[in-house]
C-alpha cells in the first residue's frame, strides 16, 4: 500500500519539525546516493585487481572509470532521467530504474570477460544517474522550508555510508582477492532489490502533481533554463559542482589505486585509509551541516568558506610534502571535513531551491550530468598522470577546488528558510 499523499502545504512549511514519514521518504530517496557512491567506490576498490584479472592497460582502466557511475554513464542517465522525472513524475523513474541498476551490478559481479565488465559498468552508471536527480527532487519538494538542508543532508549521509560499508567489506574480504570484490558488488545488488521493493510504497510528489494538473508545462520548455535567473542558477550550480566533483570523484574511485600504485600502502591499507574519508564526511554532515545549514544565509556562507579553505589546503599539501601515509591521512581528514561543508550537500540543496518544479529535475540532471561528463574525461588521464607522481594531479585538483570554493562563496544566493514557491516568485 502506498504511503498517503500530502499536499504541498503539508510537505513544506515554516515549521522545522520533520515528521516520521518525511524521514522515511528521505531515507528511501537517499538510497540513490548510497548506491551511486557505493558503486563508484566498489569499482575503485577493485580497480587494481580488475586490471590484473582482465589484463587491462592504463588506458583501459581510464576508460572503465570514465564510462561508469563516476562519469559518462551517470551523466547520460542524469540528463535523461532528470527530464523524464519532470515530464512523467518522480515516482515512475526512481521506482523502476533500480531494476536496471541491479542488472548492471550482476554483470560486473559475475564478469567473465572484458565485455561483461564494461557493459555492466556503463549500465550501472546510466541507472544511478537517472535515479539521483528525481530522488533528490522528491526530497526537496516535501521537506519543510526551514529543514530542507537537514533532509537533503540526510541523503548525503547515505552517500557517505555506501562507500564506508563497501570499503570495509573490501578490506575484510581483501584476502579473497577478486572474489572479495565480486561479493562487494553482490551486496549492492541485494541493497538495490530491497530498496526497489520498499519504494513501491512511496507516493508521488504532491508539488509535481499540482504542477502537472495545472498544465504548467512540466518537463517542457527546457529553453527556459537558459534564460534570466534560471540561467544564472544553472551556471552557478554547474560551476561549484563540476570543479568540486573533479576532486571528489578522483578521491572516490582513484584513492586506493593511487595509494597502491605509488607505494604509499598496500591494497588493504589503501582501502582502509579511503574509508576514513567517507566516515569523517558523514560525521561532519550529521553534526555540523544538518544542524546549521538551514539557520540563515550568513551561516551557510560561513560553512561554505571554511569547508572550501580546508579542501584547498588538503590537496595543496601534496605540492610541498612527500607522498607518505602521514600526508595521505592529513589530506583525507581535511578533504573529508571540508567537503561535507562545501561540496555535494549544498549543491543538492541549491539545486532544489533555485529552480521551478516544472524544471527542477531537468536542471539538476543537466548540471549533474555535465559534472560527471567532465569527470569522465578527467578520469581517462588520471592513471597516466599517477605514474608521473602525485604533484601534477594535486596541482590541478587544488586549482579545481579553489574555483569551486571561490564561486560558491562570493556568488551564493540567499534562499535559506524560504518556501520553494517564494523563491520561484522572487527569481521570476
Helix percentage:
over 70%
The description of the largest β-sheet is: none
CATH classification, class level: Mainly Alpha
Q: Low-confidence parts lasting 5 or more residues at pLDDT below 50?
A: 1-14
Strand percentage: under 5%
Task: State the CATH architecture.
Answer: Up-down Bundle
Number of helices: 18
Radius of gyration: 20 Å
Derived from helix and strand composition plus strand pairing, the structural class reads: mainly alpha
The CATH homologous superfamily: MFS general substrate transporter like domains
Task: Give the SSE layout.
Blueprint: H1 8-11, H2 20-45, H3 47-54, H4 58-67, H5 72-88, H6 90-109, H7 114-142, H8 148-172, H9 178-199, H10 206-213, H11 228-261, H12 267-292, H13 297-316, H14 325-341, H15 344-353, H16 360-386, H17 390-410, H18 420-427
Describe it for me?
The protein is built from 18 helices and no strands. It starts with 7 loop residues before the first helix and ends with a helix. Helices cover 78% and strands 0% of the residues. It has one domain: Growth Hormone, Chain: A, CATH 1.20.1250. It is mainly α.
Which keywords apply here?
mainly alpha; Growth Hormone, Chain: A; 18 helices; 78% helix; globular
In short:
With about 425 residues, this protein is an all-alpha fold.
